[in-house]
Specification:
about 25% helix, two-stranded antiparallel ribbon, 3 helices, Thiol Ester Dehydrase, Chain A, five-stranded antiparallel β-sheet, single chain
Length: about 150
């Protein structure tokens, strides 16, 4: 059963599984909500490197192209408990001139626990200003988006 407020992840969407650890949780044994944003960031890094085939570390360290999050939001439907295995998936909702809007869905046993959105902006790490998404990156993200549609 899916939550009608959370569109299911497309079959082709990139996913990672993360165990919910003691370090993620508050004294009640559920994930302390800011920790989800750290999990989202790790998901984006893994999506770039493993889902898109673009080495995230190389992009930052050698290419000097940053991808900072400029907006983040999340709705929590049910708590995630220590010991559970969380599946996180990413869908590209919008590709702008210099920004990407991503939908993040977190599921346990196929049931949504949380749904969020991130807006990332491509930025020169030399000038610290936004830059147009490079053509190679844009075409790779557009191909990924098309496989998820």
């Amino acid at each position: 059963m899916t939550d009608p407020a959370v569109p299911p992840l497309p079959a082709a969407a990139f996913r990672v599984q993360r165990p919910i650890r003691f370090s993620h949780c508050d004294p009640a044994g559920i994930v302390y909500f800011p920790n989800f944003f750290d999990l989202f960031n790790a998901l984006v890094e893994d999506w770039f490197t493993h889902g898109l085939g673009i080495d995230y570390a190389h992009t930052i360290l050698k290419r000097r192209l940053g991808l900072p999050t400029v907006h983040a939001e999340c709705d929590f439907m049910r708590p995630c408990w220590m010991g559970e295995m969380l599946t996180l998936g990413v869908v590209v909702e919008h590709i702008g001139r210099s920004s990407l809007r991503l939908r993040i869905v977190g599921e346990i046993d196929g049931k949504p626990r949380l749904a969020g959105h991130l807006v990332l902006v491509t930025m020169s790490l030399e000038s610290h200003t936004s830059v147009t998404i490079p053509d190679d990156l844009r075409s790779t993200i557009e191909r990924y988006r098309a496989t998820c549609d």
